Q: What sequence folds into this?
């Protein structure tokens, strides 16, 4: 079936539902949240979710047509860039591992944007080796008491809830002693501090957890099964990257091409050759992402997705580095070093210097390029894993 | 834009692959390269005539399979992955595409297409393999009023096994494409870098030729450009096939080879290089698919142009195809070379020997980089197409 | 050609390094960058005046140390390795080198050199930091017959801490270099990519200047070119210093950091990248040494030219120096950027934070890539020097 | 002391000896070998070797001046390219580990070129992991009986002697059961077969050893100490690479630059940019090698040498690849595929296609680039070795 590819048409039943929603809730007059709640209740939020949880249990590929139809009617959306962690990571995990109570409680305000989510995974000593994390959760009757430090938390300062992994059993090997929780970011003992980056901005946070109490009812999955749950979350994160179709010459290359066209005095034959090579690389990466999307839509996902994050990171870094060189004297100047706390991430925004510096994070955040190469080599090419010494040792006995 | 493989295309691939697995192993190819028959005529009979690949791009009404460039691309992936010594590129892509840019209502054009499609004759386009789309019409051969051709064309691919040559020549009325019997030309074999696609120099000394009339509203230049654009765009798929073989074979070898008490493929530095290479091959595949799809769309758009005068869409299709070809050709060339170079390096000493087939793929990859326009030539063409002037 | 470090140079390095270890740790630099005193005046007093670096290149008879470009290169390696916020490049290299291309018998020239050498005053050359050797004499500033200067010069390095500006301007008799008191110019700080070498825009609005007479047989253009060539060539040594810090710090960190129960520096993929980076740094060092040595040879050759009229050797020396500078500048720039980028990446998240100094080195490396000619500019200059025409 | 650098002058005593040699043996009339034997006996062969063994026990850096003085007098040399393995690998090993009898027997004809040497180290299953070699040497009274297969042996078909490593004790870990021998290439059971390369040439050989008898007197070093002896040999091999000073624009770049200058019709702006970048890289590599030589001459060898082989391999490969692209149509043509057996290796000779293919071997022969990167990372940067599983296991028990 060709759903999701160009020339797609909306299924009649979905169209009927969209029209009914628009008829009952005129986007021109109804307040934003009210419209979004109604859309959720109509099963038009994420159509592949079950009925009653914002969906209709139909293929995910049908969503695009619903979105297009609603956008054409000027209906408001839930500003997905602002709530990306909730949509991309928390929601699928709650759907797969959550209890019915958890699903009913969390998914609707998550989708409407009334409750922002963040992710408490990485720690200063546990980056690529996430399973080595030290944050402890100790059971105390029906609640867990959590102590530790998390880092690289975007949206922590706006978030109502967090997905959290913590060590609940230090006496077993590291992958087996982790449990997955939903953490209330307004709970006592949660302290959020901005973490400033090389760009000058503080897009991320450090989160200090001191005696934070989490009810056992907010546990996702079994005790000790948190690593498996987290893997599912991370898989969703990486699938999400490159998940949005770019137009030709979209993304980082758009800026460099615009500079080239508008400033002929900067052109040299050498820079021309490099720009064309980067333009080609950008176009090919776009086509690779498009091919992965078509495979997904055709119900035959290929392994290409694993490589796309790698490709986009390298591309963004190379193009933004080129752009500064192209700009010459202007490349020596920066927009603003003031520490601000942006609510949205924008890789392509601001000035060329910002783009250059921000892009450096693309190969670190959400899985370093080194880890992704391991994943491709082992899971796609089937090459053997490195010899491991930390798999069968109790976490507490690992060398530090 | 459809970047996937259709079921028909998958079936075609399976059929080609079966034949190649039977008759065109690396050992077969290695055994042939230093003989006086570098091309495998028996293999080409099976692929070209029995499977119908010789006429894949020829419309059914002209005796062919009525396939599209998308399918030809799949065939080239497989042929590239076997460095198969058959004249598919020269005959079924270059010669046929040039002829399809001529007036197919002309009996001569139709007749030649029919003979090529049936496998009764094999042809090639008499240009140096390095000829790139977008270049000026070649002036190396002149035709007189009687249609006699004089001149030389060097480094022609698939000429050594051709019965018929399609020769661009400057005639009394300007550029023209001429049909010349291969026997009427003097052919000098070239010691070629690519042992599996050997070249030849052609000398024409008053050789009798027959002018092939251009399509209505077209020209010999447009027909030649049509062929070179298709050649360059589809060669990207051959390069994907070459690169994929190199990657697969290297991964396979490194899963077996042990050094230092470990499978060599478990060393992280090699794993990371192979992961990067995999990403390149995956990306080249997407680019090659896009080029094949755009060429197929242009072909059907051009048909539409003739039958429906849908001019605007035809023009857009042509530009899209040129962009897609420039992107694929400039990207896939270095990927195939890189894959072959990594294959040789990661095989270690054995990869450097004549008895191991990896050198055949390296030579094909490096020759393909030059064939039908270098990456730099294609990127330079892009400058005009996407408004990034020098 | 001597590519090694002499004992004198080793001693000089040790002295500079001692001071920097004491007063210019990464924490010191990080603490200063967002204050209104981005330059460390106290540090510069010790380095410039007490150690004599301000007058390193100034001949002894003019009150300096009589050192050569080889020694200045060693200093810049150390300053680069500390991203030290001092105006050595602007004052002791660019301004001094321009003045040494003027008539040092002139009392004004000699006096200014003496003040710069003693550290009594700090200067800079009023050109954009991106100015490259070989460019046309700048026309941004005009001088009238009374020596009043009007115009703007953007992105000037080390201007914020300068007392004196050496300003290239077009006067009534053509190009000239003018001494202008910094207080006579309007200075607008620029938000700079490189936080440790902040730039400023200068506006001159009839500012009083004093024409600095060119050396006998020389010209203001030649004096400016002399300064830019030395700046570009010696910047390669600063880039070596930046790259070496990045490599050393990364190796150190990876020997400590553990993930997956192993020291991260034991992972082969990282080891191979660091080995490649080490080779780049080693190579950049050889290239930078060659440039410094060639510049020193040219300086002494030019002296010889004046005193002995050994014209031929002087001319050869100049061409050798230009080649060596183009090679070093085009090679060392991307090495420093690569080293800083690898340092950030291999530090992981912590390398991306404001509190870790690696971003200071990345910003310096990237700004240095643009400073005094991009790699592409220097390679283009080479085309003419080594007969490889476009 | 500045010996070995430019402007060097020959020491008076050496000059006296050179003049005496030339006076006694007029190069214009004396047969080649006779002159070379006399030069050896005068201690002017390799001046840093001991007296009586072709040297005078003076610093190596003085050799260049001797060579120059003799060359100026048109004295014949020993054609070092033809006997490189003997000079670069066998001789220093024999000097360091050989008995006096061995030194007296082997060094003189080695240096004069009367006896060519080859190296029997690599095996089909032991390339990078040389210590994993399988060739067995079993003691039989005063001789050893050797069986096995060696590969990548240059000069085997012209060689009189070989340096050979073989396993003498399979019951200890692999590095400890190896012994180092001098093998007579004319002995019964030595079979040399040409090994053809991708270039079409057979520059190397396979050597099959079947019941070859080697007297114990031809053992170099102790039984079981062969790995240490071989390491010294290999170190000398790698030091030798880049050991000869190249002029600016010498080596592979010379060919590409010549093509560029002589064929303006091939030029494009893109190729121009790449040529200039390669020219710079070639010049910088040349300077790096020159700096290493100056360090050596100054008695303070730096670690640069380890990287030079890596650098020259990459450089040769990149330039020769560029050259084919530059040549365009001519790059599609090859000189000659006929299998010949060259006596000399010439990386830069023949046509561009040959150079391209031959350069591929530069990153494999004499230590792969991968092994060299390990060496740089561990010995120069001090990074830890990979976890090893094959160090403490008896060779016979290793997984295969």
A:
């Amino acid at each position: 079936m060709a759903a999701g590819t160009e020339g797609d048409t909306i299924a009649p039943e979905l169209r009927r539902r969209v029209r009914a929603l628009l008829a009952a809730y005129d986007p021109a007059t109804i307040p934003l949240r009210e419209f979004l709640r109604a859309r959720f209740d109509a099963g038009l939020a994420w159509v592949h979710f079950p009925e009653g949880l914002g969906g209709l249990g139909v293929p995910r590929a049908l969503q695009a047509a619903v979105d297009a139809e609603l956008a054409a009617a000027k209906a408001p959306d839930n500003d997905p860039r602002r709530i990306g962690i909730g949509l991309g990571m928390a929601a699928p995990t709650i759907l797969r591992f959550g209890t019915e109570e958890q699903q009913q409680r969390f998914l609707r305000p998550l989708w409407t944007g009334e409750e922002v989510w963040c992710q408490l995974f990485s720690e200063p000593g546990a980056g690529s080796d996430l399973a080595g994390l030290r944050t402890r959760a100790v059971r105390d009757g029906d609640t867990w008491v959590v102590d530790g430090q998390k880092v690289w938390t975007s949206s922590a300062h706006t978030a109502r809830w967090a997905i959290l992994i913590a060590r609940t059993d230090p006496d077993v090997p590291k992958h087996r002693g982790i449990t997955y929780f939903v953490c209330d970011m307004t709970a006592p003992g949660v302290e959020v501090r901005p973490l400033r980056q090389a760009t000058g901005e503080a897009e991320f946070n450090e989160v200090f957890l001191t005696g934070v109490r989490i009810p056992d009812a907010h546990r996702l999955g079994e005790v000790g099964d948190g690593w498996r749950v987290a893997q599912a979350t991370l898989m969703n994160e990486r699938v999400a990257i490159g998940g949005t179709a770019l137009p030709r010459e979209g993304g980082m290359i758009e800026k460099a091409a615009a500079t080239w066209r508008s400033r002929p005095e900067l052109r040299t034959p050498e820079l021309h050759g490099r720009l064309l090579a980067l333009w080609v690389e950008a176009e090919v990466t776009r086509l690779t992402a498009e091919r992965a999307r078509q495979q997904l839509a055709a119900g035959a996902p290929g392994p290409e997705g694993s490589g796309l994050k790698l490709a986009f990171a390298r591309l963004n870094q190379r193009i933004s580095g080129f752009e500064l060189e192209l700009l010459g004297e202007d490349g020596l100047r920066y927009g603003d070093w003031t520490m601000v706390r942006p609510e949205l991430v924008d890789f392509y925004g601001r000035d060329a210097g910002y783009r250059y510096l921000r892009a450096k994070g693309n190969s670190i955040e959400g899985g370093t390029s080194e880890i992704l190469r391991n994943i491709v080599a082992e899971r796609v090419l089937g090459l053997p894993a490195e010899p491991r010494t930390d798999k069968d040792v109790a976490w507490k006995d690992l060398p530090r | 834009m459809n970047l996937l493989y259709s079921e028909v295309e998958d079936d075609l691939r399976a059929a080609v692959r079966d034949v190649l697995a039977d008759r065109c192993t690396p050992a077969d190819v290695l055994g042939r390269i230093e003989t006086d028959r570098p091309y495998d005529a028996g293999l080409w009979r099976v692929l070209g005539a029995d499977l119908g690949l010789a006429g894949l791009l020829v419309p059914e009404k002209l005796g062919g399979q009525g396939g599209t460039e998308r399918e030809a691309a799949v065939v080239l992936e497989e042929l590239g992955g076997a460095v198969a010594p058959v004249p598919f590129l020269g005959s079924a892509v270059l010669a046929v595409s040039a002829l399809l840019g001529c007036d197919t209502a002309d009996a001569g054009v139709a007749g030649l297409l029919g003979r090529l499609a049936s496998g009764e004759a094999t042809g090639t386009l008499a240009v140096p393999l390095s000829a790139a789309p977008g270049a000026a019409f070649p002036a190396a051969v002149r035709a007189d009023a009687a249609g006699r051709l004089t001149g030389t064309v060097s480094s022609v691919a698939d000429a050594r096994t051709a019965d018929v040559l399609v020769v661009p020549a400057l005639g009394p009325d300007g550029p023209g494409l001429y049909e010349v019997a291969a026997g009427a030309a003097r052919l000098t074999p070239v010691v070629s870098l690519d042992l599996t696609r050997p070249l030849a120099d052609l000398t024409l000394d008053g050789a009798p030729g027959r002018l092939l009339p251009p399509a209505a509203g077209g020209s010999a230049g447009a027909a030649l450009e049509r062929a070179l654009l298709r050649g360059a765009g589809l060669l990207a798929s051959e390069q994907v096939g070459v690169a994929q073989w190199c990657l697969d074979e290297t991964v396979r070898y490194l899963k077996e080879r042990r050094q230092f008490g470990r499978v060599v493929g478990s060393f992280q530095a090699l794993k990371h290089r192979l992961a990067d290479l995999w990403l390149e091959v995956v990306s080249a595949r997407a680019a090659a698919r896009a080029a094949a799809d755009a060429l197929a769309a242009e072909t059907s758009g051009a048909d539409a142009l003739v039958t429906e005068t849908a001019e605007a869409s035809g023009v857009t299709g042509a530009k899209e195809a040129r962009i897609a070809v420039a992107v694929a050709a400039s990207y896939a060339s270095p990927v195939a070379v890189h894959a072959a170079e990594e294959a040789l390096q990661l095989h270690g000493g054995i990869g450097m020997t004549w008895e191991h087939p990896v050198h055949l793929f390296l030579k094909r990859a490096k020759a393909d980089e030059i064939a039908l326009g270098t990456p730099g030539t294609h990127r330079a063409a892009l400058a005009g197409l996407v408004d990034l002037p020098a």
